[in-house]
Amino acid sequence: xxxxxxxxxxxxxxxxxxxxxxxxxxxxxxxxxxxxxxxxxxxxxxxxxxxxxxxxxxxxxxxxxxxxxxxxxxxxxxxxxxxxxxxxxxxxxxxxxxxxxxxxxxxxxxxxxxxxxxxxxxxxxxxxxxxxxxxxxxxxxxxxxxxxxxxxxxxxxxxxxxxxxxxxxxxxxxxxxxxxxxxxxxxxxxxxxxxxxxxxxxxxxxxxxxxxxxxxxxxxxxxxxxxxxxxxxxxxxxxxxxxxxxxxxxxxxxxxxxxxxxxxxxxxxxxxxxxxxxxxxxxxxxxxxxxxxxxxxxxxxxxxxxxxxxxxxxxxxxxxxxxxxxxxxxxxxxxxxxxxxxxxxxxxxxxxxxxxxxxxxxxxxxxxxxxxxxxxxxxxxxxxxxxxxxxxxxxxxxxxxxxxxxxxxxxxxxxxxxxxx
Length: 421
Known about the structure:
Layout lengths: L7 H4 L20 H10 L7 E4 L5 H8 L4 E5 L10 E2 L8 E4 L2 H11 L3 E3 L8 E2 L3 E5 L5 E10 L4 E7 L6 H7 L5 E4 L8 H10 L4 H20 L2 E11 L5 E3 L2 E5 L8 H4 L9 H7 L4 E4 L4 E5 L2 H13 L6 E4 L6 H12 L6 E8 L4 H15 L5 E7 L2 H10 L4 E3 L3 H11 L2
Parallel strand pairs: 15-17, 17-18, 18-19
Antiparallel strand pairs: 1-7, 2-4, 2-7, 3-5, 5-6, 8-9, 8-11, 9-10, 11-12, 11-13, 14-16
Helix pairs in contact: 3-4, 6-7, 11-12, 12-13
């Protein structure tokens, strides 16, 4: 549809089904109610909503909305909630419509504290700890609006379509003429004539067009000021009364901006993440768990993926993606080993380091200290290349530890697979 950011971590999604369901690539993932909170902050129209974390809070929260109809929505980081089911009681659906606060309380009592299983969660489901109750609105038109960073235009691009409320990729494939793009000068920001063109492309006229233009400008303001990499509104909806609402939003943010958006990054819900990934992030390690039995520690995302591929080529299965980055220190290497060795499915570890910015002797010291600290008993294969490689290999050999060294990546993968055969 349009050029999107394709960094190495995001491209790991293509490795499915090697990635287990329910695990997240490391980026900020926020709940629906948090998205609405941000939209509200920037003056974007949303339905009235309340958050409940206890059943007893439900009726007061629902009553305060003064809505003719309510929608009760479980808040988890997974799609397909409406078609899901709860493991503890078999209750169907994590999204329900109702008329009264009492009905809302009944739904909340069946969902809160229980595990919701959807097509995007692990088989065991995800525990629902928060539920959003919102004003339900009737929709006359469902449109699509997105803002994202686009490599082709080297900056932000606004994308709109009159065909919203559905899979936008399918729209682009079947009716590409229904997709409209407007590159935005990041210095000047969205100009009135650009907002007018986008509003017209969405089918707005008259006073309603002016309101749509204002909403588009506010969405861009949110995008820019929060250092978002994507703001997707689907649907960007119109009610029978002619009011415009951003009904559902997907927001992604630049992780590098966390230092200046502490309030937004505080939205992170680690309870829904792989605990190994949470632990790794504390030490600036990029980690994603998989389903194999050979743990990998590599510096560089491209090298990590190449390592996983060659392990599979020789009949093995990688247990994880773990990138220590180009400037890792001994402590980070030790923490990486702690995470890998603590995984019960890991039967061997392969360390593959190319010493460019990172020095092989630093990695070697980290490996040795880590082995001693965790009391490593499983086979360990280490392949070093690059800066100070001779010093690094010498340290490994002099360590007195049972470390299998390899000459190159192919040799390392073969030895790792053989070690657990």
